[in-house]
Design brief:
This protein has about 375 residues and is mainly beta. Helix content is about 10%, strand content about 35%.
């Protein structure tokens, strides 16, 4: 039996099958998501440390992902060759999702650049333009200026490069951020976001070529489900003070379907594990949509009157039940979320004092009097 040091990401206490971190009897994409969440939260488990280097890192998730997709050379999820562990970074492009016509962003990152410094890059990004289009790119400002070619973005290809005469960066290095717009109209449509390193396309500060593997990303068109935070009367409300209750209402979900409502720390990304520790309410309400895919105003968090003003940012996730293996994880194709680009609501925030309200009233009154005087002249 392998005992975990931390199980905060939802990992079971031991994994009799290597790589089966949630103990469901299979090694699949859910286990990859668990490792990614452990990386984000800085957690450790020997079960997730697939290369036995005493840390859980993106390289472990990459290895397990290749195993899940049955890539030759990755027949076992547990053992890795020495050449796979530290030699050169692994370039990844993050997954993305958006509703039809809406924009989102993904990042290109060089992970595990521990023995080299990344100074310059030249990359081509490809995708299915009927599903998604890359519309813009920004570079890590520490890597100089961006050179880009968007002439073929409408047909599924863009090229971006850096122009950096300074030093490089080591560790896990964000190279660039891409803006994408969803073109697909069918919920669940997907496109591979392909990443290609062009010839001499990844260099260190001495202009030597860096050898690196590439892990592509995936973009998915999500439903138009639009849960939103509100007051008891259903009026949209995005800030709540201590003593108030947070409500949510939802539209555009699947008809006659059961969902569980989660409050999670912002931001929430595709595949994220929905965790009790991030939900301040301590309760997860279940709702069933009507024949039009809507559900009525539902209270989800009664904020204690004594709660300090912490300005915490939250998202509301409407998680479809019975959607295994996706239930319990944010899955853009079947779940709802109040916002992918900003926090859904902020709480607790301080209540305006009577003095502040009185002062604001005086300012407004003075402005009105001044306007009336100008009008009369």
């Amino acid at each position: 039996m392998i005992v975990l040091v931390s199980a905060g990401a939802g990992v079971a206490a031991f994994a009799p099958i290597p790589g089966d971190l949630n103990l469901d009897g299979v090694v699949d994409i859910v286990d990859v998501h668990i490792i990614q969440q452990m990386v984000v939260h800085g957690e450790y488990s020997p079960d997730a440390d697939l290369n036995a280097d005493d840390r859980v890192a993106q390289i472990d998730a990459i290895h397990l992902l290749k195993h899940v997709h049955a890539i030759p050379g990755y027949e076992t999820p547990l053992f890795m060759s020495s050449s796979e562990i530290l030699y050169g970074p692994y370039l990844t492009i993050s997954n993305g999702s958006a509703k039809y016509g809406e924009m989102t962003t993904v990042t290109i990152t060089a992970y595990n650049a521990t023995t080299v410094d990344v100074a310059n890059f030249d990359l081509t990004i490809t995708y299915d333009p009927s599903v998604v289009v890359v519309t813009n790119a920004t570079i890590n400002p520490n890597l100089g200026d961006l050179i880009s070619n968007f002439d073929d973005n409408a047909t599924g290809s863009v090229r971006i490069a850096s122009s950096n005469n300074g030093s490089g960066l080591s560790g896990d290095v964000t190279l660039a951020t891409l803006s994408l717009v969803a073109n697909g109209t069918i919920i669940g449509e997907t496109s591979i976001i392909g990443l290609t390193i062009n010839q001499y396309g990844l260099l260190n500060s001495s202009e030597n070529v860096i050898s690196a593997e590439v892990i592509n990303g995936t973009f998915v068109v999500v439903s138009a489900a639009t849960p939103s935070s509100c007051d008891a009367q259903g009026n949209e409300k995005n800030q709540f003070v201590a003593g108030e209750s947070v409500y949510v209402k939802g539209t555009g979900l699947e008809a006659n379907t059961s969902y569980r409502i989660w409050i999670q720390a912002n931001p929430v990304s595709e595949g994220d594990l929905l965790t009790v520790n991030e939900d301040p309410s301590g309760v997860h309400e279940e709702v069933t949509t009507d024949t039009t895919g809507n559900f009525s105003t539902t209270e989800i968090w009664a904020i204690p009157s004594y709660a300090p003003s912490t300005y915490d940012e939250y998202d509301i996730v409407i998680d479809k039940l019975g959607d295994e293996p996706n239930t319990g994880y944010y899955n853009a194709a079947s779940d709802g979320i109040d916002s992918m680009s900003a926090a859904g609501f902020v709480a607790p925030v301080p209540e305006l004092s009577p003095i502040v309200l009185f002062s604001a009233g005086l300012i407004a009154l003075a402005g009105y009097i001044g306007w009336r005087r100008r009008e009369s002249n």
